[in-house]
Design goal:
Bound molecules: NADP nicotinamide-adenine-dinucleotide phosphate
Number of helices: 10
CATH superfamily: NADP-dependent oxidoreductase domain
Helix content: 25-40%
CATH topology: TIM Barrel
Largest sheet: 8 strands, parallel, barrel
Oligomer: single chain
Distance between the termini: 10 Å
Structural class: alpha/beta
CATH class: Alpha Beta
Number of strands: 12
Strand content: 15-25%
Order of helices and strands: EEEHHEHEEEHEHHEHEHEHEH
Length: 267
Amino acid sequence: MEWRRQLGQTGMEISAIGFGSVKLGRDHGVKYPEPFTVPNTAEARTLLTKAHDLGVNLIDTAPAYGGSEERLGNLLQGQRQNWILCSKVGEEFDGRESHFDFSGKHTRASLERSLRRLRTDYLDVVLIHSDGNDDGILDDGEALQELQRARDEGLVRAIGMSTKTVSGGTRAAELCDVIMATYNPAYTDELPVLDCCSNLGVGVMLKKVFASGHLPAGHADPLAYSLNFALSHPATSTAIIGTINPDHLSANIQLAKTLCAEEPRGS
Ligand SMILES: NC(=O)c1ccc[n+]([C@@H]2O[C@H](COP(=O)([O-])OP(=O)(O)OC[C@H]3O[C@@H](n4cnc5c(N)ncnc54)[C@H](OP(=O)(O)O)[C@@H]3O)[C@@H](O)[C@H]2O)c1
């Protein structure tokens, strides 16, 4: 397996671990096993510095992750060139619950707001943040058309969808550069989406590789088992892991590097 991987056919090379930033911006309305508070600025800076120093080059954020985009915009000033930035459109979180809007108008406004918040003039990846009705969003088509337009304009390098169904994931793979899917030892329903992306050469970002902290029982080392499970699928470009614990961050990266050095992919 490789630590640096191609993101499908986008021409981008990304680290096998991505920095998931939900917990950087939002500490309620989430389903983690333990309560937590969002890190302060110094703590968030430490996490990003550590991730970068250990070779991570991908950050995943979204408007729905509370203050995540805005905080990243502040923290990444002067180092935009070090990072592949992925954000999303379609889901809004008002502090209590999520609302969804997949219209072309909202898609454009959301993308322009992400650029402002992240203090950049382009995003590397923008994904449609599905509400679960993947097929409905694709049937409607407006969000994807707007992202295609943004890609043509150079505002976005690659576009895709964070899907929740096999039907939507496989359809989106035909239309997009990148798919974000869920895959871990306790949840393999979306395996056909990964296989489809592998066949099409579409980049795959995995979310919830550690089942959002609900790690599988019955394994001596559930972290290593889960990470190896995710990274060894031939479609996987990166496992986006959400941690705000710097020791966990270092351990996850070291573990991934060890697995990548040891295991031939797909064996
Ligand atoms: N597009 C979407 O719909 C969507 C949905 C969910 C997530 N995502 C993206 O995927 C990222 C990851 O998803 P996720 O945060 O739900 O799940 P995850 O990465 O599977 O799990 C994160 C949880 O695992 C814990 N953890 C991480 N490393 C650990 C370690 N070495 N030892 C013990 N516990 C550890 C973290 O706690 P600590 O903080 O204590 O380490 C955190 O509670 C998100 O941040 C987000 O960027 C996208």
